[in-house]
């Protein structure tokens, strides 16, 4: 039963508690994207399998050297990116053992590497088709994740179609024996999006779990004879704090201009017609952290951020607009223009920050290359 349904029997757990089952019946549960795909899920397995295929033509050190030569700038720490090219991050079952967030981002870089090495690799067409579909799914999941409006059935049709195609492509690429229960579980994600009106994602919850397990829980376990009683007392309090903060601020935190703050230049204050305009280190905008030199995208447009501001009329960024030059399979090439724009940002704006960007140095056109 555990193998078929994908859960374990744990006496005293929420799933086995009669009162909890009445309040939260399993039939009302929704599969979440983090565990379906990126934490011991479909994407982490295929990343491991794809890396195994690439290592047949280039070892991990050579792949990392290629990434360094390309000089991609990413939104997560350099050390985390380097860890993706260490053998210890891949287990014997061909799985990727890094964090779910790292796995989600790494899919796009790996897609780029496959395209760069495709002329050298003797990769089966079925392998390429399966992995390319996975990349398309991850991009669609990113789009759904950043949408600022409630999701409806029409919003998840593309995800449903891509998942069905990937479900058919996987056994041709990796063999039917490699399929696991989560290959079916992930097919329920579109229904979960519609039921909850947003993409079910446990990244934030998992981060709080790590805080408790790594710090509070681990410390008290060394000091107390009965650490389970301490956990039972503390965890509901943490949940209540989260609930109260959600009720006060909403599910999305309000925008915040991060310190240190300083008055904007007199020219910008005059241009904006706002004598109280302030500049800050970065702008926390919903789930995004927007910093100077970042590229932001919206409505098929793009710009490079120069400064972040807060004023009477809200939040804004000073940008250099980008002009699209070329679309490639793995991303796009843009040219930085001289057009400066003070772009107002509202909480409902669908802004995205590409996972990887790089400027082609020594290029007189100032081309900026980015990829999702």
Task: Provide key terms for this protein.
372 residues, alpha+beta, nine-stranded antiparallel β-sheet, 45% helix
Characterization of this structure:
The chain has 372 residues and is α+β, with helices and mostly antiparallel strands. The protein folds into 3 domains: 31-196, no CATH class; 203-249; 256-371. It is built from 14 helices and 12 strands. Strands 1, 3, 4, 7, 8, 9, 10, 11 and 12 form a 9-stranded antiparallel beta sheet that branches. A 3-stranded antiparallel beta sheet has the order 2-5-6, with no helix packed on it. Helix 4 (42-54) crosses helix 8 and helix 12 runs antiparallel to helix 13. The longest helix has 23 residues, at 227-249. The radius of gyration is 23 Å and the shape is globular. The protein starts with a helix and ends with a strand. The model has no long low-confidence stretch (mean pLDDT 84).
So how many helices?
14
Strand content: 15-25%
The sequence of SSEs as H and E is HHHHHEHHHHHHHHEEHEEEEEEEEE
Tally of strands = 12
Itemize the secondary structure elements and their pairings:
Blueprint: H1 2-5, H2 18-23, H3 33-38, H4 42-54, H5 60-70, E1 73-74, H6 78-83, H7 100-117, H8 125-146, H9 157-174, H10 181-185, H11 189-196, H12 203-223, H13 227-249, E2 256-258, E3 262-263, H14 266-272, E4 278-280, E5 282-285, E6 288-290, E7 295-298, E8 301-311, E9 314-327, E10 332-345, E11 356-359, E12 367-371
Antiparallel strand pairs: 1-11, 2-5, 3-4, 4-8, 5-6, 7-8, 8-9, 9-10, 10-12, 11-12
Helix pairs in contact: 4-7, 4-8, 7-8, 8-9, 12-13
């Amino acid at each position: 039963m555990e193998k078929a349904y994908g859960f374990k029997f744990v006496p005293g757990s929420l799933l086995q508690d009669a009162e909890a089952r009445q309040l939260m019946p399993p039939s009302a549960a929704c599969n979440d994207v983090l565990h379906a795909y990126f934490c011991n899920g479909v994407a982490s397995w295929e990343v491991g399998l794809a890396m195994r295929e690439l290592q047949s033509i280039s070892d991990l050190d050579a792949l990392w050297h290629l990434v360094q030569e390309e000089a991609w700038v990413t939104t997560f720490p350099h050390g985390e990116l380097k860890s993706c090219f260490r053998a210890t991050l891949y287990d014997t079952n061909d799985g990727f053992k890094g964090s779910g967030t790292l796995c989600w981002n790494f899919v796009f870089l790996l897609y780029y590497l496959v395209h760069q090495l495709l002329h050298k690799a003797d990769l089966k067409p079925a392998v390429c088709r399966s992995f390319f579909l996975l990349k398309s799914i991850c991009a669609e999941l990113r789009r759904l994740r950043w949408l600022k409006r409630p999701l409806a059935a029409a919003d998840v049709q593309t995800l449903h179609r891509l998942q069905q195609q990937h479900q058919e492509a996987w056994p041709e690429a990796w063999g039917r024996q490699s399929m696991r229960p989560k290959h079916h579980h992930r097919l329920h994600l579109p229904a979960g999006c519609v039921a909850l009106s947003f993409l079910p994602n446990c990244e934030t919850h998992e981060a709080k779990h790590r805080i408790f397990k790594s710090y509070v829980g681990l410390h008290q376990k060394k000091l107390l004879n009965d650490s389970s009683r301490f956990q039972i007392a503390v965890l509901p309090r943490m949940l209540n704090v989260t609930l109260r903060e959600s009720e006060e601020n909403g599910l999305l935190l309000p925008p915040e201009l991060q310190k240190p703050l300083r008055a904007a230049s007199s020219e910008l204050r005059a241009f904006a017609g706002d004598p109280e305009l302030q500049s800050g280190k970065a702008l926390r905008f919903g789930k995004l952290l927007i910093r100077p030199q970042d590229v932001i995208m919206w409505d098929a447009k793009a710009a490079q951020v120069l400064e972040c501001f807060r004023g009477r009329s809200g939040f804004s960024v000073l940008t250099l607009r980008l002009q699209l030059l070329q679309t490639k399979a793995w991303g796009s090439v843009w040219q930085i223009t001289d057009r400066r724009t003070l772009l107002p940002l509202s909480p409902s704006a669908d802004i995205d920050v590409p996972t990887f960007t790089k400027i082609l140095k020594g290029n007189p056109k100032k081309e900026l290359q980015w990829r999702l």
